[in-house]
Amino acid sequence: MNTELMHELQLLQQSRANKFADELTDRFLSSVEAVNEKFTSSISKRGNMLMILESRLSLSTLRRLRERFFKK
Fold it and tell me: Which of 22, 36, 58, 70 has the fewest CB atoms within 10 Å around its CB?
């Protein structure tokens, strides 16, 4: 009887430890996913801004070249 109770106690402790480890893992993974989402979003926004800037610069450069070399 005594060994059965000890065995039940060990199983209960293992169950609680596994539950705690799962909760800790879930918290960690959710925070990592949130950071990844913010990072990806900021990189995407920066890339879009750079593409828009590049297109504006290339258009203004073309205008300047046109005005300089193709004067009417």
Answer: 70
